[in-house]
Design a protein that fits this description.
The chain has six helices and seven strands. It is of the alpha/beta class and about 210 residues long. It has one domain: Glycerol-3-phosphate (1)-acyltransferase. The longest helix has 18 residues.
């Protein structure tokens, strides 16, 4: 995408780390948000965070829970066409991707994020769910996992109501899925990428099915 530098991966540590506590204060003041399973988050090394997607602020909710590290989230390129949003997203490590097509630059960048030891954030569905329930995953996450041989951390965002002050929201981090369990073989059949995406989404659905913490 024009205007975004895909040539190298950088982390804007100063701004990201300043925005996180501010976001935490705002979100905690608005919602009854709870985090479960944060002990499952690796403290080092590259991996993929994969979550269901229900709201525009989902990356913020997840980033607040990953307190010791930064995440590089994929975001639809249309958001980067808004000057103020583009500047903020770039400073928060997000990068643009064209939805519904082949975006080699963005895919290559995503693979580089993982290979260089960072966390890549993906919403496998590719768009927000209109009924708050997890939907079918697209194959992108399987493609990136295959190319990077990355482990995947499934995450669920659970909420079944319209968001208003005091609404309960549960963010649940599952156990890390080792690359070896994603179903890839040396033969590399085309279906393996789709099957990986389905498997990862099924793990997210299991977490989502646990509902709110009590």
């Amino acid at each position: 995408m024009k205007g975004f530098d895909y040539s190298n991966v950088k982390e804007e540590e100063a701004l990201y780390d300043k925005l996180r506590p501010l976001g935490k204060k705002i979100i905690n003041g608005m919602y009854d948000i709870n985090y479960i399973g944060t002990e499952n988050i690796p403290e080092e090394g590259g991996f993929i965070i994969a979550s269901n997607h229900i709201r525009a602020f989902d990356p913020v909710y997840i980033a607040i829970g990953v307190e010791k590290r930064q995440i590089h989230f994929m975001a639809k390129k249309e958001l980067f066409e808004i000057p103020v949003v583009k500047t903020l997203f770039k400073k928060a490590n997000a990068f643009p991707i064209v939805r519904g097509g082949s975006d080699k630059e963005a895919i290559d960048y995503a693979e580089r994020v993982v290979r260089e030891g960072h966390i890549l954030g993906i919403f496998p569905e590719g768009t927000r769910s209109k009924d708050y329930k997890p939907a079918r995953a697209r194959s992108g996450i399987g493609l990136i996992a295959k190319e990077t041989k990355a482990d995947i951390l499934p995450v669920s965002i659970y909420n079944c109501d319209e968001m208003k002050k005091g609404t309960k929201l549960t963010i649940r981090f599952g156990e890390l899925i080792p690359y070896e369990k994603l179903g890839f073989t040396e033969e590399g059949a085309r279906e393996e990428v789709k099957n990986c995406a389905k498997f990862v989404m099924s793990e997210i659905v299991k977490l989502w099915g646990m509902g709110h913490c009590e």
